[in-house]
Amino acid sequence: PVEQGDSQQQPAPQDPAPPQDQAAPQQTPPQDQTAPPQPTAPPEQGTAPQAPQAQGTQGTTPPAQAGPKIVKPEEIGISFAPPQGWQQGDPTKFSLPGDICCAWSPDNVASIVAFVQRPGKPLNPKVLLEQSAQALQSAVGADVKTKEIKDIGGMKGFSLVVTAPGNGAAIDGKGSVSTTQHWVAVPRDKDVVIFLMTTPDESFAQNEQVFQGVLSTLKISGTQTPDQQASK
Q1: C-alpha–C-alpha distance, residues 62 and 40, integer Å
Q2: 77, burial (CB in 10 Å: exposed 0-12, middle 13-18, buried 19+)
Q3: Fewer C-beta neighbours within 10 Å, C or N terminus of the chain?
Q4: pLDDT tens, 118-143?
Q5: How far apart are CA 129 and CA 11, in angstroms?
Q6: What does residue 95 show for φ and ψ, rounded to 5 degrees?
Q7: Looking at residue 67, what is its pLDDT?
Q8: 111 near 37, Cβ under 8 Å?
Q9: DSSP secondary structure string, 50-116?
């Protein structure tokens, strides 16, 4: 789910622009890495994940002007335990459709990032899930592995797992590495909290265990509308 206007990554809003491919990182996702696919807000819905943008935006091209806005977990009402054994990366090296909170990587290829999008209105989890899945399918030919509405951090959100060609650090629909992304998004009354794991598909099972460890400790404060809470 990406804020409207963010034309960098995934599921589709007006111009769904998914995340750009990350360039092979070096110890902490380097500048050349453009973060993994990210959601983009659909024209009406406001924020839906989008498919990643093409691979190849590298460090020589800095992110938009002043760069991404960095926020602390407490500023966006979330708390969680960081992924065990992974190193914290520099959030400014990621190109994401929203305000980034944190980023980690075990090898400068796979990554887990947390960020928030601010559509300014409540988005329905089910609608956002369907828009995100469709956007990724159309943008990069993603194969949807699983998609479901579930309770996350004490609120109603969605889980979406897709696999598409990429470079292991991002998906672009044309790379040589089968790459899997696990999107977890929780829409609140005015924003959307997103956790995104991107990994080479061959390492998905191992990295998914780490990701689930993070999600099991996640607590999200704030409010959801009755419509959001009733989503199934």
Answers
A1: 20
A2: middle
A3: C
A4: 999 999 999 999 999 999 999 999 99
A5: 9
A6: -105, 105
A7: 62
A8: no
A9: B----TT--TTS-SSTT-PPB--GGGGTEE-PPPTTPEE--GGGS--SSEEEEEEESSSSSEEEEEE
